[in-house]
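Appendix B, example 12.
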Amino acid sequence: PVSRIGKALAWSPLPLSVAEARRFLPAGPALSVPSRVAATSGELLASMRAVHVRFAARTVLSIDRLDFREGESVGLMGRNGAGKTTLLRVLAGLVRPTAGTGDGLTSVDARVRYRDIAFVPQDPAATLFKSTLEAEIQDVLDGTGRGGTVDEALAEWNLDRFRHSDHRDLSVGERQRAALAALLAGRPRLILLDEPTRGMDAETRQLLLRNLKQRRGQGACVVLASHDVELMASCAERVILLAEGEVILDGPVRSVLTGSTTFSTQANKLFGGDVLTPE
């Protein structure tokens, strides 16, 4: 991000870190930018009420109340072991809470849940089993009963030329896109992503952001867990910060990701105020 800012402002030599970029800044107050307009919240898709999850004798998740609605983009952040993955798996119906209730999609029967919820794990390529990408996508569509076609899924992730390829013949990045094309095929209403940009190149990252924005425009709720602060600043409107299985902060992205030494973007470290991204 600081290099993109440097290119836009013709800084030379081009800074490669926040420390280098600070040499180009004039003295003065922090920048202020217009607030991002949040999308209008739609129908309640899933909720958690007094949810507790215990593994052995340890409580790994303790949630008082969380709601997730149509058109939202929600980021889950926190250190390793904070409970991000467990929260996603509870929403997906893959982990049963030790105590508490879930309403919305998490309380419906399995057939509806598989149709309306898409969960993409940290290693999405590990979910590929069929002999061709076409077969992978068709298997998901048949198994979930979602609307949509193989052609649409391939086009969305720029994978048309790999229709008849075995996933083992693809590169790591291509397998990542193949898994996303399969798992998100059709129109799931609740999209759950666990560290979606791990090992992802810049071009695929932009494709992911574009596709998630389009899905939200179609009414889907996107919930993604990540350590990638820049990703959250680019696509999340709301951020939930977890620590030791509990919600520490839950609010608009601009209020959660500014003023923190740990969870702030390069642009914010550089300019301060409520700046989040180069844009």
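The chain has a mean pLDDT of 88. The beta strands are 44-55, 58-69, 73-77, 99-104, 117-120, 190-194, 221-225, 238-243, 246-252.
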